[in-house]
# Entry
Amino acid sequence: MVSPKLLDLLICPKCKSEHLLYQPEKSEIVCQDCGQVYRVEDDIPVMIAGEKDKL
Ligand SMILES: [Zn+2]
# Structure
C-alpha cells in the first residue's frame, strides 16, 4: 500500500492535478483529470507521464 500521506503530496506531473485515484488492486494511480495512469512499484508511485504507454 502507498501511504495516504504520500498520496496526499502527489500531483500529476502531466496536468498538475491533485485528483489522483489510487487503485491498490492494480498497483496503479490514475489521474482523474487527464486520465494518465502511473505505475506503483514496491509501494513507490512512478510519477512519470507516458511511462506506462511504453511498456
Ligand atoms: Zn493529470
User: Anything to note?
Assistant: The mean pLDDT is 89. The first strand starts at residue 20 and ends at 23. Residues 1 and 25 are 9 Å apart (CA to CA).
